[in-house]
Design goal:
homodimer, 130 residues, alpha+beta, Arc Repressor Mutant, subunit A, three-stranded antiparallel sheet, 3 strands, 13% strand, globular, DNA-binding, transcription (chains A, B), WH_DNA-bd_sf (chains A, B), DNA-binding (chains A, B)
DNA sequence: AGCGTAGATATAGAGGAGTATACCGGCGTG
DNA sequence: CACGCCGGTATACTCCTCTATATCTACGCT
């Protein structure tokens, strides 16, 4: 049995180790489309619920409510009830949420620039399989 | 009816417009935990199926297969069958996938550094609701 | 009183993604 | 031969997300 060949394989695995146990639960919470889009909207300045719904054209009432609740639970956005007339709830970004600005902006920009390329790749793949 | 107040609201919406229609379908494909982790592993160098499964400790056989299929469909990774003995399938990153390296690395690093903060926020939130 | 707005909640159903498990096929070794 | 390894598929079940829709409270306007 060639011990050396197997050992070389193991060394490669160790050197490029990935902290799945540490990062996976975090990515599970933040790596989804609505988190990226909501934080991108909230970064420049706070917004109220229905304002968010208008800007995130196509999002459902419940989907937005759920996404905001998760973001609030994770300490990325802050919920504040305004004493305005018709009540009013303002969602603003927290310092922790702001630290996600750069990564999320990069992701948003990537989606903007490489979106067409991605779509073409999908079409090519689907046609090659058909 | 105060027209100016409504107009001011509309102006705010226009100035910070978000291209949901363009970015949402893209983020739907790439913004998920396994895409980030798989591409992070594949960035330095290609890997075979079971190598990936060992590094992504905890991922299911099927989950990895599905994720790789989606990444391949989107043109982010390349699948190549090796004529080695026991067969062998190597997954490598494409130029398009490489353009995601910076954003995904930023996300991975964020998960590493801010993971504990996130966890604490969750605990605090859950306790305040209990 | 009746209507509109703002935020929230509830429900039912569709669909995607994940887990667990078993199986196929080719090839190697004991 | 019987077994394990490698890549992959198939199945069934669960869980989460999204959609669509309806209902609720509180306030203001006409």
């Amino acid at each position: 049995m060639p011990d050396d060949a197997d050992k070389a394989d193991d060394i490669d695995i160790d050197t490029s180790l990935i902290n799945v146990h540490q990062t996976r639960p975090v990515l599970e919470q933040i790596a989804n489309k609505w988190s990226v889009l909501i934080l991108t909207v909230l970064c420049p300045k706070p917004a109220r619920f229905n304002q968010l719904m208008r800007r995130l054209d196509g999002i459902t009432h419940k989907a937005l409510a759920d996404a905001l609740k998760r973001l609030e639970r994770n300490g990325l956005v802050q919920r504040q009830v305004l004493p305005t007339t018709p009540i009013g709830v303002e969602y603003s970004i927290t310092p922790l949420g702001l630290s996600l600005k750069t990564p999320f902006e990069a992701l948003y920009d990537w989606a903007l620039t490489h979106g067409p390329t991605l779509k073409n790749a999908q079409i090519a793949y689907d046609e090659s399989k058909a």
